[in-house]
Amino acid sequence: MQLKGKRIIVTGGAGGIAAATVRAYVREGATVTVVDVLDEQGEKVVREANEAGGGKAEYVHCDISNRDEVFSVFENAEKKMDGLDVLAHIAAVENNKAAEDFTLDEMDLIWKININGTILTNQAACRLIRKQGKGAIVNYASDVAMTGMPNSALYSASKGANMSWTRSIAHEWGAKYNIRCNCVNPTIKTPMYEKWRANASEEVLKQHDVSNKFGYPIGGSMGNADKDLTPLMVFLASDGSGYINGQVIAVNGGSNMVR
Q1: Identified catalytic residue from 140, 155, 177, 216
Q2: What is the pTM of this model?
Q3: What is the layout of strands, in order, in the sheet containing 179-186?
Q4: 58-95: per-residue pLDDT in tens?
Q5: Domain boundaries, position 213
Q6: Measured on CA atoms in the order 113, 18, 90, 254, is the torsion positive or negative?
Q7: CA 156 to CA 177: how far, in whole Å?
Q8: Angle of helix 117-129 versus helix 67-81 axis, rounded to 10
């Protein structure tokens, strides 16, 4: 068990990539607090992770855009786990729309969840992790933060902000508190993607799959969260990554190679 004894908070843990991360952390022996606003789904993820064995997980409702709620939930989790070593901040929202049509309300929603939520959860975690004398924060960006994506300009902008924020705190909190901060750029199949596939026409899917075959050099499609992404998440939470800081790590099969 690579994470035995580690105490971890995972945001957005009710589904998708974050749920896969919860399963991996518990399997590797960690004590995990899972936060989200989707209570029924979150409880299910925790129940199934605990049934599989290894470490243990608990679900707590938390709106990451609410500062008082974030700080209270994190402080209570730290007390219950008797410390905090790692934050895996994965929660985010997306809104697909033509760039020229986004409204102020839509901007506010993306900013408060994807940017403010990142800052607030990171601040709360920093205050607790630094008590241990070392620890890790793993934030999430996206390939679209570097390449852009039609009809997803707000989401792309928020993920670009997360990258810049993470690199800055990696310098600041690394030097001050020995907290290493890294950013993951995933291109992974999610429930939202699977729902789109289920509703797409046969012709659209055929074109999409042909495009993916050449767009993703490894595997010919987006990756699987449990198989392709969680090994990295376990590594970044473990002591084995103790000298890795300020990095943006892509998990995308080579679809967006560094140039």
Answers
A1: 155
A2: 0.93
A3: 56-61, 31-36, 7-11, 86-89, 135-140, 179-186, 248-251
A4: 999 999 999 999 999 999 999 999 999 999 999 999 88
A5: 190-222
A6: negative
A7: 30
A8: 30
Tell whether 183 and 204 lie within a shared domain: no
Amino acid present at 109: L
Q: Is 237 exposed, middle or buried (0-12, 13-18, 19+ CB in 10 A)?
A: buried
Active site residue 155: yes
Same domain, 209 and 239: no
Question: Are residue 200 and residue 93 in the same domain, yes or no?
Answer: no
What residue type is 110 in one-letter code?
I
Q: How far apart are CA 177 and CA 155, in angstroms?
A: 30
2 located within any domain: no
Which residue positions in the chain have pLDDT lower than 50?
259
Q: Quick check: is 58 in a domain?
A: yes
Question: How far apart, in whole angstroms, are the C-alpha atoms of residue 125 and residue 134?
Answer: 12
Across the strands, what pairs with 34? Answer: 10, 59
Tally of structural domains, the chain:
2
Distance separating alpha carbons of residues 88 and 77, to the nearest angstrom: 14
Q: Are residues 140 and 168 in the same domain?
A: yes
Amino acid identity for residue 251 in this structure:
V
Residue closest to 183 by CA, chosen among 122, 111, 116, 257: 122
The reply to whether 207 and 229 lie within a common domain is no
Question: Does 110 fall in a domain?
Answer: yes
